[in-house]
Amino acid sequence: MEYQYELTLKVRDYECDLQGIVNNANYQHYLEHARHEFLLSLGISFAKLHNEGIDPVVARINMAFKTPLKSGDQYTCCLNLKKEGIKYVFYQEIFRTADRKLVVKAVVETVFLVNGKLTDFKDFEQYTIA
Prior knowledge:
Thiol Ester Dehydrase, Chain A, 18% helix, six-stranded antiparallel beta sheet, alpha+beta, elongated, 2 helices, single chain
């Protein structure tokens, strides 16, 4: 599959639990970091949007865990962004970089609040794929 954006990072020791694998909550951090870096690569700053009264927020997230990561593993977060009605949906996958094994598959639905009100923020459509 082709992705709009890929970001490769490395698991840090403190992200792992007693079992020696990445704690499930940390995968949300990985996914969020990839979304933020994707937007920055497009010249979009969350701080600037917020200062303009525009706040993209997560409305729903669905994650399926496939293979655990361990300390020191490199992983690649991949994403595609699609517009679905009023929502902007990030289709994200995390792969272990060494063998491209699927670690997590996620669907992250986001919406925009403009001056505190839910809106169809069409200015963002140019960054989506069909």
